[in-house]
Amino acid sequence: MRAPQRLSSPVQPPADVQPDGRAGFGALRAELHARCADEDLAALWAGLKLGERKAIAASAGLHPRDAEAAIAALSQVERDAIRAAIGRMSRYAQALHACLGSQPNARQPHPSRALAANARRALDRGDTPGARHWLGLIERGEP
Question: What predicted TM-score, i.e. pTM, was given to this entire model?
Fold first, then answer.
């Protein structure tokens, strides 16, 4: 059983790669080496709050105490599970953001607001069937 380790300071990014006339190959190679060494994951992990790391560890199927461990203390399988969990959570967040982005925001009133106003006017006139019609549209989610 591994004793949890506290996170150390974030891993420093690799030194700037000098242009080598190969259309950025050197920079790409350095980035791939850093990724294979999980330096990007270590920097991300170190920047997260403990609660966020616990949520990721749970999503990765790890023990909650692994959230307190430095990335270097975890096995490659555990690191891969964390990377996959972060990817899943990121895709979910992007999909949620896209869904919310397609919804009217605070500056634009929700479409059902106009329907509710029509229902309120019908009630003010005493037109119960008309009010029920507008409320039915709102309940069905029709614009």
Answer: 0.49
